[in-house]
Design goal:
It is a single chain. The protein has a domain of 113 residues. It contains 5 helices and 11 strands; from the N terminus they run αβββββαββββαααββ. The chain is elongated, with a radius of gyration of 35 Å.
Length: 228
Amino acid sequence: MLGGKLGRQRRRLSCIILAGLLGMSTAAFASDAQRMVLAPAACRVLAPGAYDDVDAYCLDQSRARPADGAILSTVPAAVDDASVKITGMPPLTLSQALAQRIVEIAGRGSNRVVGLRNLTDRTVEICVDGPTVVMGADGDTRDVERIRDQIARLLHAREGAQGDSHEAIQQRLWAAVNASDDTESKKSTRDLVPPVVFPPLQKPASAAPLRKKCAGRADNVDVEICTE
């Protein structure tokens, strides 16, 4: 009986360790995953604890899509055009709602949607009015901020019955972000290489003095006397 009890304890400990490792892996994967931009859409009303998907697009062509359940914990203020409303409270930005643990954003293992969850015991309304970037904790959006207006125009092309397909807009977004990265990379390279400065040209010293006036013989000796 003692051996069986020890065996169960070992299995329980192994499960706890494995769960911890999986949690660490998911969190790390979220940091390395694609940054996602939420597509503007009608407001969503989430009941307490409710979960819903929202359309999104990838911004990093060379990165993997966020894993299912990977927490996207950051919405930079410069690319946060979403609001969160709770009755009796002033509206919050999405980044503020994340910081206050009102909502949670997670990957869905897809490059087309991310999940929004209401973490409170009250009804929450979430409205995405323009380009809103969600990502892991260690992301950077300076390249996206430079082309924010262009991204807004691309996302606007999806609206209406004759809107462009998700795939077409996705390709244009990748092209725009890649071009922004290339431009900044070239600028950084120019800034790192100092300009070549050549010293001013100097006139070589004359081997002989400048002679303005010269006189001839002196005391029957052939000499040449010159003055400047």
